[in-house]
Amino acid sequence: MSDDITLRIEPARKSDTPVILRMIRALVDYERLTHEFSVTESILDNALFGAQPVAEVVLGYVDAEPVGFAVYFPTFSTAAGQTGLYLEDLYVEPQWRGRRIGRKLFAHVARVAATRGGGSLTWSVLNWNEAAIRFYRSLGAEQIQDSSTFRLVGRAFEHLVGEDR
Description:
Blueprint: E1 8-11, H1 17-30, H2 41-49, E2 56-62, E3 65-77, E4 82-92, H3 101-115, E5 121-122, H4 130-138, H5 154-162
Parallel strand pairs: 4-5
Antiparallel strand pairs: 1-2, 2-3, 3-4
């Protein structure tokens, strides 16, 4: 296959939920996070296409074949007073990697942010994922050195939610 492919990027529809779920599963497997995988079609339907969608998804197609996706949602920097997008997931099927599909999906999400008046994209990457880090650096991305990502889940989350108000 040639690197010069035509990629069509479209907003996902509710009928795409099984494809999105399959790609999420593949991404979770790749990231060695299968112990965290619990999303279902029903959860995705509600989160992405329900009354109050919490994120958006675009799918990349070569001809009729879905070959990748990006999931993103709005952010706001209080210090800069500027909106942006948080890229939750970017995934390209293994057999399609190295053909600029990830770059095209990334650029598409950046254009979405720009057309909405935003000026940034933010995301996180697993420290061991050198291929992704090289890719992000090739885009001109800067790693934030003075920041660490934290997450409150499970019992700790439930404990905090249950504290006296």
